[in-house]
Amino acid sequence: MKLKLLLLIFTLILFNCSIPNTLLFVGTYTNGDSEGIYQFQFNSETGALTEKKLATTSKNPSFITYSPDKNYLYAVNENENGSVSAFKVEDNKTLTFINKVSTQGAHPCHVAINAQGDKAVVSNYTGGNFSLHNIKNDGALNEAFQVLDHKTDSIVSHAHSAQFFNDDLYASDLGRNAVFNYRLANNKYELISPSIVNLESNSGPRHFSLTKDGNFIYMINELSSTITSAKKTEKGFEFIETLLTLDDDFKGISYCADIHLSKDEQFLYGSNRGENSIVVFRRDTVFGKLNKIQNMSVHGNWPRNFTIDPTGKFLLVANQKSNNISVFKIDKISGTLSFLHAVELSSPVCLLF
């Protein structure tokens, strides 16, 4: 009897150790019940989200990202006096605050880290500028060494996101209706192009995805509910096409938010706030063109950021206004989504595996 009990206990221990759990951090707005950055355990076999807990208190950590080695986490603090915070990811996956610095602009809404992990770029939405920061070996942020100011006398700039790619920096400005291209030279970023492609007026580029080789870029336009595709050439980027993200039958008001390529880059996904959907495109990997194949309800209200889990089998959506995170299964062959379930969390806006 004792032997059977011991075998049962041993089996349960082995089973629990083999559960394929992955840590998910969630950035939120804290003007309601939320207190900062939360974490869940995500089961990459079933898609279950469990063990919700507060990882750290922080004011309006509306966008979060890792260092390349995942030893550090960085969060914007989307307030009038904008700042960005650095945290150490401890061995037990708790977050320890390191430091916080000014972003030199109001309402920062995005932060990205370069591949070397020694630079950060923050997009200040209301401030209309991008602040660049060096990162110390211990993960701490330095004060901005450069600020890229997009404000003009005639156009209201709304800096929305930026990404490093080798020595290039791409910066999306919704207000200026363009994605800018900067290049690193003598430890400063110099303007290469104020618009990598011409966008239709009032498009409002918000976020963008680059292919791994940097040869294609896909820009999601908040105001026109479209995605614009372009191909890298020796002279810059060449326009491919602009496609609507909404279902053909949708008649209401909607605004795009986030965009991501699938792990194999065969499919492209975008979020629609208003239609409250994820749009799915099949991607031609040779020529870069897209074919819309699905508009899937997010089973919530106002989808902001979404993410694909490390296995590439699941897509998770942060629904800000309905206070929930929806989980979808990705069909590996077709790229289409099927809804699994949702969990509650107050004002989720950014998901990070």
TrEMBL record:
Keyword Repeat applies: no
Ribonucleoprotein as UniProt keyword: no
Coiled coil: none
Sorted UniProt keywords: Carbohydrate metabolism, Glucose metabolism
Annotated SUPFAM superfamilies: C-terminal (heme d1) domain of cytochrome cd1-nitrite reductase
Family recorded in the similarity comment: Belongs to the cycloisomerase 2 family.
Protein name as it appears in the record: Lactonase family protein
